[in-house]
Amino acid sequence: MSDTARAMSQENVEIVLAGYEGYEHGDVEAVFASFHPGIVWETLEHTPDPDFNKGHEAVAGLWASWADTFDDFWARPGPQLVAGGGKVVVEHRTGGRLKESAHDSPEVSYDNWTVYTLRDGLVVAVKEYSTLRGALEAAEIDNPAVYALQDTRVVVVTEYPTLEEALEALGLRE
Questions:
Q1: What region, left, alpha or beta, does residue 81 occupy, with left being phi > 0 and alpha being psi -120 to 50 degrees?
Q2: Distance between CA 154 and CA 174 in Å, rounded?
Q3: Helices marked H in the chain — which ranges?
Q4: What is the CA angle 138-140-146, rounded to 5?
Q5: Which of 17, 109, 113, 159 is found 20 to 30 A from 93 (Cα to Cα)?
Q6: Measuring CA to CA, which residue among 78, 135, 82 is closest to residue 109?
Q7: Cβ proximity of 86 and 5 under 8 Å
């Protein structure tokens, strides 16, 4: 990965992680500052609303529908992500307590893999996948870098010359 590509990849990772941090602190305006006004968010096919959500208002409505289902709703990145070529692939973890359940009921969580597409420092598209392999193959990242996270801070970056080598390092090579 060239120095320029590495710097762009790192910048894109920082933009995506700042969005998670803003969301965690209830600062939706900060999140939308990193989203293109025409952002398209595509949910998984098996979610209640698998349609495209286009624009800030539609994405805010999507998030509100998730939050309306749970008490103490949260969304966080998983312990690693993969970036390169204007794409950032994140293990997207969400959860909370279902509103209809008792307050002492256990928290439920749901994980998927989300591909963020960035252009000119803004997130222009988000698409969810049920598996890391599916997300990585759809993202078509050449020379991927795998970022290990602690909370929302990058602690280790490992670059790979090919996607296949990154998949093997992540234990996903068949």
A1: beta
A2: 28
A3: 3-24, 28-33, 56-69, 132-139, 163-169
A4: 105
A5: 159
A6: 78
A7: no
Could you tell me the domains of the chain? 3-169 (3.10.450.50)
Q: What is the DSSP string of 120-163?
A: TTEEEEEEEESSHHHHHHHHT-SS-EEEEEETTEEEEEEE-SSH
Q: What phi and psi values does residue 42 have, to the nearest 5 degrees?
A: -110, 120
Angle CA(171)–CA(163)–CA(122) in degrees, nearest 5? 110
Mean pLDDT, rounded, for 126-142: 88
Terminal-residue alpha carbon distance, the chain: 25
Instruction: Give residue-wise pLDDT tens across range 43-82.
Output: 886 665 556 788 999 998 888 887 787 878 888 898 888 8
Tens of pLDDT, residue by residue over 9-24, are: 889 999 999 999 998 8
How far apart are the C-alpha atoms of 98 and 105, rounded to whole Å? 8
Q: Which residue has the tokens 């939050």?
A: 67
Parallel, antiparallel or unpaired: strands 87-98 and 153-159: unpaired
